[in-house]
């Protein structure tokens, strides 16, 4: 079996938004089984989620919701040239920090504040 590691580079905003989405799909709903039918893929999803959890200090900050919304707005602006509304309804982002703290454990700061290795 080939065990060579692969590195994916994300901006801190990308990592933060992806971390929140993964948390919502994995821990706040039963969506993971509906989205990912092959459980073999779950190994990669859990590895990515765990790496993000160890890297992002934002998931433990009291202003989680406002930081998340700001990151989303910056990413939308980068993609579309301006901010727009969310494309899908979702749970209130300000409810997530406590859940992150309970579910996720300790974090480790990324060495580069603009990029989070995955």
Structural class comes to mainly alpha
Count of beta strands: 2
The unreliable regions are 86-113
DSSP strand (E) fraction?
A: 5-15%
> How would you write the strand order of the largest sheet?
1-2
Mean pLDDT: 76
- Please state the oligomeric state of the protein chains shown: single chain
Q: How much helicity do the residues have?
A: 40-55%
Q: Counting H and I runs of at least 4 residues, what is the number of helices?
A: 5
Distance N to C terminus? 21 Å
Radius of gyration: 15 Å
Q: Mind explaining what this structure looks like?
A:
It is a single chain. The chain has five helices and two strands. A two-stranded antiparallel sheet has the order 1-2. The two termini are 21 Å apart. Helix 1 (12-27) crosses helix 3 (42-55) and helix 1 crosses helix 4. The protein has helices spanning 12-27, 31-35, 42-55, 64-80, 96-104, and strands spanning 9-11, 115-117. It is mainly alpha-helical and 118 residues long.
SSE arrangement:
Elements: E1 9-11, H1 12-27, H2 31-35, H3 42-55, H4 64-80, H5 96-104, E2 115-117
Antiparallel strand pairs: 1-2
Helix pairs in contact: 1-3, 1-4
Question: What is the gist of this entry?
Answer:
This protein is mainly alpha-helical and 118 residues long. The protein has helices spanning 12-27, 31-35, 42-55, 64-80, 96-104, and strands at residues 9-11, 115-117. It is globular.
